[in-house]
Amino acid sequence: MRFDEAYSGKVFIMSGSEFEKAKAVIYGMPMDWTVSFRPGSRFGPGRIREASLGLEEYSPYLDKHLEEMDFFDAGDIPLPFGNPARSLDMIEEYIEKLLENGKFPLGLGGEHLVTWPIVQAMYKKYPDMALIHIDAHADLREEYEGESLSHSTPIRKICGLIGPENVYSFGIRSGMREEFQFAKESGMHMSKFEVAQPLKKILPHLSGRKIYVTIDIDVLEPAYAPGTGTAEAGGNTSNELLQAIQMIAESDLHIIGSDLVEVAPAYDHSEKTAIAASKFVREMLLGWVK
């Protein structure tokens, strides 16, 4: 499947039919090959698309309508089951093609390791970029049970690539002691527990910068997002995450791409996780794609 082919399955609500006209491209990364607890996030992209059909196309938060946004849903990257190394290479190649075509990439995961190859591709084009990371977990391990390719390692890998001083994590409430020590000593920014208020304080310091944003749905309290592989009690509300998305939209940051990961439909019996995720994606499209 080419990255610019029409997708025959369900697409995100009001997706356009022409790749060439699109400013933004939604794409799925159905990978959960390295998860450490509950699998199933490879089914997340499809379920987010299905849940989007229940959305209103208008955002009262941003006073914008999806009909005002040219975007294209390219479907899922056909990743090879059980092969993380090849899957990551394919994702990196895919993003490089999107950037060559001047598109804003908006990815749907999938486990959080998928963010690593995206940032690798982004960094080639934007070597002065920074990362906003919204998550329950630090993801700063160097390996998990001897495996360096793990969904618990992407932010540590990104720190090594773009420099820890260019990494800003919010909502973190889980990790090894060594991960929190690394964050403290390396020069990266980590805000524990909350997202919206710490982000509000940091945004002026990022003024004008090129930023990639990655959101792990498990930053939410499990009551708001039970459908995820590694749920963590003590999280943020859906409204707080919406506030964060809106603050980024209203800032003067140059958002160069984004992803939303770790929706696992098997544990989402009320579908509230996919419904929330689809709304976040709508706000990201309307607020971050300039």
UniProtKB/TrEMBL annotation:
A GO molecular function held by the record: agmatinase activity
Keyword annotations of the record: Hydrolase, Manganese, Metal-binding, Polyamine biosynthesis, Putrescine biosynthesis, Spermidine biosynthesis
Binding site for Mn(2+): H112, D135, H137, D139, D216, D218
Pathway(s) where this gene product acts: Amine and polyamine biosynthesis; putrescine biosynthesis via agmatine pathway; putrescine from agmatine: step 1/1
Keyword Cytoplasm attributed: no
Reactions catalysed, as given in the entry: agmatine + H2O = urea + putrescine
Cofactor dependency: Mn(2+)
Class in the EC hierarchy, top level: hydrolase
This enzyme's EC code(s): 3.5.3.11
Gene3D superfamilies documented for this protein: Ureohydrolase domain (3.40.800.10)
Pfam families listed in its UniProt record: Arginase
PROSITE patterns: ARGINASE_1, ARGINASE_2
GO terms of biological process kind: putrescine biosynthetic process from arginine, via agmatine; spermidine biosynthetic process
InterPro entries, sorted: Agmatinase-rel, Ureohydrolase, Ureohydrolase_dom_sf, Ureohydrolase_Mn_BS
The keyword Zinc is annotated on this UniProt entry: no
Cofactor note: Binds 2 manganese ions per subunit.
Family as reported in the entry's similarity comment: Belongs to the arginase family. Agmatinase subfamily.
Function recorded in the entry: Catalyzes the formation of putrescine from agmatine.
UniProt-recorded name of the protein: Agmatinase
Species for this entry: Oceanobacillus halophilus
Gene name as annotated: speB
